[in-house]
Amino acid sequence: MTNMFTAYGANHRRLRKLVSPAFTKRRTDALKPRIEELTATLLDRMSEAPEGRTDLRSAYAHPLPMQVICELFGLPEEKRADTARLIEANMDTTITPEQAMATWQEIHELLAGLVASKREQPGDDMTTALIAARDEEGSRLSEAELIDTLLLVIGAGHETTVNLIGNAVHALLSHPDQLARVLGGEIPWSDVIEETLRWAPSIANLPLRYAVEDIKLPDGTLIPQGDAILATYAAAGRDPLRHGDGAARFDIARADKEHLAFGHGVHYCIGAPLARLEASVALPALFERFPGLSLDESAGPARLAESFIGHGYRTLPVRLGGVS
User: Fold this and answer.
1) Where are the transmembrane segments (predicted)?
2) Is 225 part of a structural domain of the chain?
3) Domain total for the chain?
């Protein structure tokens, strides 16, 4: 894969610069009315759920960010279900090497088709903008970089936000005393989002980085040049040396919520403002519409996704309770 996730140095800066226009503060802020519109539509549909029961992930946490990122990159409606299926498979670390290769090939065929259609019929979207960068100045973006960049931004641009929304809802419903403080206006939703990112980051482990030179750690450990490095964001967020003896507790009132959920340094997630915006719209709107929302224990426990990389729920059954 050749995109800004795997690139280093000047090559990374070149690729990141091409994608940056999609995620500027101005463009992100401009998306808020559309996010609010999509949120209201999804909540209306949820209110019609039989017996007031539904899977929050499939009904709400997944379709909202999926719709936003697909509209941003011009992915047609008829391709979105396949895109979601393939990205979930790409994050599944339990599949066989043969299944992984088949998924990889299918993803690239789908995205190559998107590029071909946008070349034929350009639109007001970021895929068209990236194609222009590729076709107008061929030395700036190769065809492989174009496809792999689309995979990165469309995949990471929705799957991580799906997990953020789902993890926050599950954490609040599992800690009703803290939910009451949020609904009572004592603690802002921004604190819920940041504590969720610390306590249950959407990406738990990120393989792999490689040492470009020998790295000596403060305790004397040496990571030799060329060695693989696994970034374990989930462990960092619960480090008692940073967050004290209560590091493993979900606590929206904690003072220090600093985390690495969006990475660090030059590889800091370019879509972080969009993820925070979507969560800041989705979470209060959900609990305002369904103040009696609760976990549906009769449907069994929420099921985590089969992934060593991502951390989120594959199913999140809930009871909607009363509708306001």
Assistant:
1) none
2) no
3) 1
